[in-house]
Amino acid sequence: xxxxxxxxxxxxxxxxxxxxxxxxxxxxxxxxxxxxxxxxxxxxxxxxxxxxxxxxxxxxxxxxxxxxxxxxxxxxxxxxxxxxxxxxx
Length: 89
Prior knowledge:
By secondary structure, this protein is an alpha+beta fold. It has helices at 2-10, 61-64, and strands at residues 17-19, 25-27, 30-34, 45-48, 51-57, 70-71, 75-77, 84-86. The strands form two sheets. Strands 1, 2, 3, 4, 5 and 6 form a six-stranded mixed β-sheet that branches. A hairpin with a 5-residue loop joins strand 1 (17-19) and strand 2 (25-27). The chain is globular, with a radius of gyration of 13 Å. 19% of the residues are buried.
């Protein structure tokens, strides 16, 4: 995540990075998402069911579905139980 934040800072976004109660990673008032940067450039704002989002990154998933979004979350999986829990930033 440090690399993503460094890139966002380099394009002028200095909003606070924080973790919402439900585990969603936030940049200021925006949900952080990864998207296809060819159609949604870094810094683009997108309305989602979780609130307004800002494109901060991309991923290999865009090869399969170029319209997909990936929500940044701070969840970790407990290896013993298989359940997820909210982790720190």
